[in-house]
Write a structure and sequence with these properties.
Layout lengths: L7 E3 L7 E7 L14 H14 L18 E7 L4 E8 L5 E4 L4 H6 L14 E2 L14 E3 L2 E8 L2 E16 L4 E12 L3 H5 L4 E4 L7 H4 L3 E6 L11 E4 L8 E4 L1 E2 L4 E3 L1 E6 L2 E2 L18 E5 L6 E3 L1 H15 L3 E2 L9 E3 L2 H4 L6 E5 L4 E4 L5 E5 L2 E4 L1 E3 L10 E5 L7 E6 L4 E6 L8
Parallel strand pairs: 1-10, 4-11, 5-10, 19-28, 20-27
Antiparallel strand pairs: 2-3, 2-13, 3-4, 3-9, 5-11, 6-9, 7-8, 8-9, 9-10, 12-13, 12-29, 14-30, 15-16, 16-19, 17-18, 17-23, 21-22, 22-26, 23-24, 25-26, 29-30
């Protein structure tokens, strides 16, 4: 339960600014934190997460009850308010949480469940509501709007469409947001056992939290490796931090696309035909173009771009590559990032309208063992599902130390190199 008093800001309309912490799944503040995880365990997560993220097509991408979980959003729902931890996902279009009016199930659950019968602010959605048709696979049962959403590598979420009050512990105050449209999902044992309350969808479609809160949001990702790092932030609403370089933002039903022009490593621009980055909107059977994503750790490049990238890295670091147990085709070297990569040049992704994403070595490599480091840039041809093999995906590691802002109304993406600790001020 959550009690709040004089520092509450109740939003009669949608709030103009809402800043809340993002919790990395390996953070000491995360229920998934394991202090006994080894370097090898963390490396395995980077590799397997990035594969699991793209193992099916035409479904929302909140992959797996474990593998696709990168960042969590904490909020409270209902009155009395129940604490929730949901997976942030820019490739999902709905906020849903697990609900149970069953006292026995709720009592046995290790995570708090919303009981719609006990919340004074819960309202079911009638079938005649204009929003019912926007829910995935919506149907009508006893004049109640229901939904069914499928996920990659994970159980579906099935339940009732509804509205409910949300509370956020913002950096400035406690913000109450009334009448948020969400999915009240039937309890699924796999999600409960995995410690997941639900999904905080920030995708492009009408019911996502991005669309419900002023069509703008931004996130700032800092040190991806430090479990004590506490400055990752999500900003929702009109005052999302829209600063830095801008580039056009394209949207499909599930993804955000960018126009990548070229890639440079240090002073060398890679000899890549721009056509390999162009999105083919006429072929609905597969993905193409360049996606910016919050759920994949690594970056995936189409083959031509990947091998140009790989060859330039080999030119810089040498040909003495080594194999690892987890990934025989990954580019790996003996040594440590701290000792061997201090002089590695910056990688820059150049987007249209002169926007750039500047990536240091810690956004390109990861420590695989105590004595081996590997490149976290992979060829899309290695993805298990063929529909993804023509796509390039900019993963979270490459977005470290940046504020990334999405303006869905103006169809612009903002990229700003920044220390996320500025939000503490």
């Amino acid at each position: 339960m959550f009690c709040y008093a004089s520092n509450v800001l109740e939003a009669k309309t949608k709030p103009t600014k809402l800043i809340t912490k993002l919790i990395h799944r390996n953070s000491i503040h995360s229920p998934f934190h394991n202090p006994h995880h080894s370097i090898e365990d963390k490396a395995k997560f980077i590799f397997e997460n990035s594969l699991a993220r793209f193992t099916n097509y035409k479904t929302d991408l909140a992959a797996g009850t474990d593998m696709g979980l990168l960042f969590l959003v904490r909020f409270y729902i209902g009155n009395p308010a129940i604490s929730q931890l949901a997976v942030m996902d820019t490739a999902s279009n709905l906020l849903w949480v697990q609900c149970s009016p069953n006292w026995y199930i709720s009592r046995r659950s290790p995570i708090p469940l919303l009981d719609p019968l006990k919340s004074s602010t819960y309202a079911s959605m009638p079938c005649k509501s204009e929003f019912c048709s926007y829910f995935p696979s919506s149907s009508c049962i006893n004049e109640q709007c229901t939904y069914n959403i499928s996920y990659v590598n994970a159980p579906p979420s099935t339940g009732n469409a509804a509205t409910e009050q949300l509370l956020f512990e913002s950096d400035e105050n406690i913000v109450v947001v009334p009448q948020v449209i969400f999915g009240c999902s039937k309890v699924n044992k796999e999600y409960i056992d995995g410690g997941i309350n639900g999904v905080f969808g920030l995708g492009p479609k009408k019911l996502s939290m991005a669309r419900q809160l002023a069509n703008k949001f931004s996130y700032c990702i800092g040190d991806f490796y430090d479990p004590n790092y506490n400055y990752n932030r999500l900003i929702l609403g009109d005052e999302a931090r829209l600063e830095g370089d801008t580039t056009p933002l394209e949207m499909s039903e599930l993804h955000y696309y960018l126009n990548l022009q070229e890639i440079s490593i240090g002073e060398n621009t890679l000899d890549i035909d721009k056509k390999v980055f162009i999105r083919n909107i006429t072929d609905k059977s597969k993905l193409s173009g360049v996606i910016i994503d919050s759920g994949s750790v690594a970056t995936w490049l189409v083959n031509e771009a990947y091998y140009r990238f790989r060859n330039e890295v080999k030119r810089i670091l040498g040909d003495s590559i080594v194999d690892t147990k987890e990934c025989r085709w990954c580019l790996c070297y003996e040594g440590t990032m701290a000792q061997n990569l201090t002089n590695f040049p910056e990688v820059v992704y150049h987007f249209s309208e002169e926007a750039v994403l500047e990536v240091g070595f810690d956004g390109i490599f990861y420590q695989a063992t105590a004595s081996i480091f590997c490149m976290a840039v992979y060829p899309s041809s290695r993805l298990p599902d063929k529909p993804f093999q023509d796509a390039t995906v900019i993963g979270v590691m490459a977005q470290q130390n940046h504020n990334v802002a999405y303006d869905l109304q103006e169809k612009k993406l903002y990229l700003e190199s920044i220390d996320c600790q500025v939000y503490e001020g």
